[in-house]
Write a structure and sequence with these properties.
Shape of chain B: globular
Helix content of chain A: 40-55%
Strand content of chain B: 25-35%
Strand content of chain A: 15-25%
Distance between the termini of chain B: 11 Å
CATH class of one domain in chain B: Alpha Beta
Radius of gyration of chain A: 20 Å
Largest interface: A-B, 41 and 31 residues
Strand order of the largest sheet of chain B: 1-7-6-2-5-4-3
Oligomer: heterodimer
CATH superfamily of the largest domain in chain A: ATPase, nucleotide binding domain
Number of helices of chain B: 4
CATH topology of the largest domain in chain A: Nucleotidyltransferase, domain 5
Number of strands of chain B: 7
Order of helices and strands of chain A: EEEHHEHEHHEEEHHHHHEHEH
Largest sheet of chain A: 5 strands, mixed
Shape of chain A: globular
Structural class of chain A: alpha/beta
Helix content of chain B: 10-25%
Radius of gyration of chain B: 14 Å
Strand order of the largest sheet of chain A: 3-2-1-4-5
Number of strands of chain A: 10
CATH class of the largest domain in chain A: Alpha Beta
CATH topology of one domain in chain B: Rossmann fold
Order of helices and strands of chain B: EHEHEEHHEEE
Distance between the termini of chain A: 24 Å
Structural class of chain B: alpha/beta
Chain lengths: 346, 146
């Protein structure tokens, strides 16, 4: 089965061709990060305006690089949520136009499930049937989720952030440190050589026990990053000179607090589920310190760590086509891409 | 339009949420709450309290990425975050106008000053400022006179 994937839920306009949910024949991403940089984040109106211009370019490039003709496609898979409605609609309209022109179905893909598909784009990864049950940490600018994946398409939410997402925490911390955007990479660069124990930042609800959220999630499995952001704010107010004198140390301490907080919940998730496989997906999965901490955590629990190939961590369309392809292989239906849903749950 | 301005000091996130829950109890459908304050001032925390006061039984996270999150309670709540929006021109197309003109619940907007020209005259304005000690906040509530 050969699918054309399309992604436009946030910054990136992307198209890709994927065979059998596992093999990316092409993956083209046009990022708007440069045009968003002056504003410290995604500006939705710019996002949708740029998606309109980028869509035909990335789609044509993905088909050309894959070296296949339109008639060889079995279907088109497009992200239909969650994301910015104005941006989602561009990808969905484009996908439907292509679908009509070549008379092929257009399937809606959940962006979060697409991130999970990223690990299976690594040819060395076992197929979902062997990888599950699996504990997955999904960490990006908009999401921080801990999931128990029993099979492809069968997920149980174990924990989520109660306030800011991990990537958002890095973005806002970078803003406070005067480092620019996107926060993850600029903090990682600034932290190089810094002392991660220079400031003892909070890891978020370390002492909360035996409580549940309104949805019935155990607090121990949930994340909270707003206290960390506020702690950095106060620290910088009290020590205004550190931006000049100890930038690397403060950035390293802040980064370590974010990654420790993530690794701690993963540790609890492994202990609670007994999963033998651990996956980390989403843009923050590119972070080298997080990869190292998760590797150590997995070893302690005798679990195998599956990492998304670096090229498929941040938003891309190969993971979108892969997600739909894996559903088809698992005998699950792919829904038609009818409506954009900004808060589509997994 | 006559307005009423009250200043409060809270000493913890819990106190901020409790104050916000009291405010929520007095709100009528269509009320627009504009939240002002820097990163870390407690805007999302205040909206969490409003949600509690409306009887919403779901975790209220930051909508910085999704821009608009909606919740169902005694009254529905639309939680909007304009952190990533530069001005009214950028906000066009988000559906913000619909929320501001005819929403049958409560609209809470973080970084509302970025679309100042779109905000209804009868909006509530809530200004959060860190006070002397770490978790204390000065919260000024500027509302239309009842």
């Amino acid at each position: 089965m050969i699918l054309l994937g399309i992604e436009s839920s946030c910054d990136e306009t992307a198209a890709a061709v994927v065979r059998n949910g596992r093999e990316a024949l092409s993956s083209v991403v046009h990022s708007q990060i440069a045009s968003h940089r002056p504003y410290g984040g995604v500006v939705p109106e710019i996002a949708s305006r740029e998606h309109v211009g980028n869509f035909p370019v990335v789609t044509a490039a993905a088909m050309e690089q894959a070296g296949i003709g339109w008639a060889e496609l079995d279907a088109i898979a497009v992200t239909h949520g969650p994301g910015l409605v104005s941006s989602l609609l561009i990808g969905m309209s484009g996908a439907r136009a292509i679908g009509q022109a070549i008379n092929k179905p257009v399937w809606g893909v959940n962006h979060l499930e697409a991130h999970l598909a990223g690990i299976f784009l690594d040819p060395a990864a076992p197929p979902p049937t062997e990888a599950c049950p699996l504990l997955a940490l999904l960490v990006s600018g908009g999401h921080t989720l801990l999931l128990d994946m029993r099979a492809w398409g069968d997920y149980r939410l174990l924990g989520q952030t109660l306030d800011d997402a991990a990537g958002e925490c890095l973005d806002k911390g970078a803003n406070l440190l005067g480092l620019g955007y996107p926060g993850g990479p600029v903090i990682e660069r600034a932290a190089a050589g810094g002392n991660p124990r220079f400031v003892d930042f909070p890891r978020g609800m370390e002492h909360a026990k035996n409580q549940t959220t309104a949805e019935g999630l155990a607090i121990e499995m949930c994340f909270s990053f707003s206290g960390l952001k506020t702690a950095l704010l106060y620290y910088l107010k009290k020590n205004p000179a550190v931006r000049e004198t100890h930038l690397a140390d403060v950035a390293a301490s802040y980064q370590a607090a974010v990654m420790d907080a993530l690794a701690l919940r993963v540790e609890r998730g492994l202990a609670a589920t007994g999963a033998r496989m651990l996956a980390c997906v989403g843009g923050v999965a590119r972070n080298a310190l997080l990869r190292q901490k998760l590797d150590e955590t997995a070893r302690r629990h005798g679990a195998r760590l599956l990492l998304t190939p670096l090229a498929y961590c941040t938003d891309n369309a190969a993971m979108v086509a892969a997600a739909a392809g894996l559903r088809a292989q698992a005998g699950l239906d792919n829904p038609p891409a009818l409506e954009a849903d900004p808060s589509l749950p997994l | 339009m006559p307005r009423n301005r009250q200043s409060h000091v809270t000493h913890s996130a819990e106190e901020t949420r409790a104050l916000a829950a009291q405010v929520a109890a007095t709100l009528e459908p269509g009320a627009v709450l504009c939240l002002h304050g820097d990163l870390g001032a407690g805007k999302t925390c205040f909206v969490q309290g409003v949600a509690q006061g409306l009887g919403i039984r779901r975790s209220v996270g930051s909508p910085t990425f999704t821009l608009i999150n909606e919740y169902r309670g005694r009254l529905p709540l639309a939680h909007i975050d304009l952190y990533r929006v530069r001005g009214a021109a950028d906000a066009f197309g988000l559906g913000l106008e619909d929320y501001l003109s005819h929403y049958d619940g409560i609209v809470a907007i973080e970084w509302a000053e970025r679309v100042a020209e779109l905000l209804p005259e009868e909006s509530w304005h809530i200004h959060l400022t860190p006070a002397a000690s770490d978790n204390a906040r000065e919260i000024v509530i500027d509302r239309p006179a009842p």
